[in-house]
Amino acid sequence: MRDFLIQHKKISRKSLSSIKHAGHILVNGFHATVRKIVVEGDQVEVWFPVEEGSHYLMPEPVPLDILHEDQDILIVNKQADLCVHPTFSQKNGTLANGIMYYWQQKGLTRTFHAVNRLDRDTTGIVLLAQHRFSHQQLSIQQKQGQIERRYYALVHGIMECNEGVIEAPIGRNPHSIVAREVREDGQSATTRYWVKKRFDQYTWIELKLETGRTHQIRVHLSYLGHPLLGDDLYGGTKEKMKRQALHSYYTRFFHPTSGQSLCYEAEIPADMKSLLDG
Fold first, then answer.
1. Top CATH class, 150-247
2. Which of 46, 56, 82, 246 is the most buried if burial means most Cβ atoms within 10 Å?
3. Averaged pLDDT for residues 133-138
4. What would the pLDDT profile of 84-95 be if each residue is shown by its tens digit?
5. For the chain, domain boundaries
6. 119 labelled catalytic
């Protein structure tokens, strides 16, 4: 049983330990231990311990645009000016607070498991796990590069190349507690991009992350000399956009329990769309 759950069902040893102590395992309807020998045709049920919830998060009503929900995953289209997690300067009113309130209204006790994160003013898809097993499975996919994320962005200037790959390591800017920069001793980072349309003063591009470093797209585009509209932290101006013009519009991954390949899209927000229509 132990080898079956770890090797074939990808349940971590830590999770298996918690199941042994506070959950239970059924084989063909009867309680069993991890020493049980299973054979082809056996029906195995694994019950994880009930999650206690994220006690550090205060449930608060926050507008949510839910793209998909099932017992394993929750996909949200995050609006601008919304942190995913509480921070030192933003204790309340985050996506996490709103999700906890959403679950509370449904009578559910759960822990907040964000599979990916977006900056406060970046809009678009945030993938959430409804429980620890789902989070574990999706985290494995993320480490193996199986979760695809694509973005739309508006950048200053006219990009000459129709497509390209930015490979430049990213590390902390020693003069800032927030900003990152391209530096030789940074972590490897790769971003692919394609030009969608050129305007008089800015360019609409699509991007695909090959790695997931903090501020990766913002740093890489600034490094190219084409910072995001509205991103004054990395050289952009707020003349046309009051926030960085970055939207996570697409994701593709495998469902954590069924293994089915899934993809979801989030519509471009109104502030970016007005510039694309102009």
1. alpha beta
2. 246
3. 92
4. 999 877 889 999
5. 2-47, 150-247
6. yes
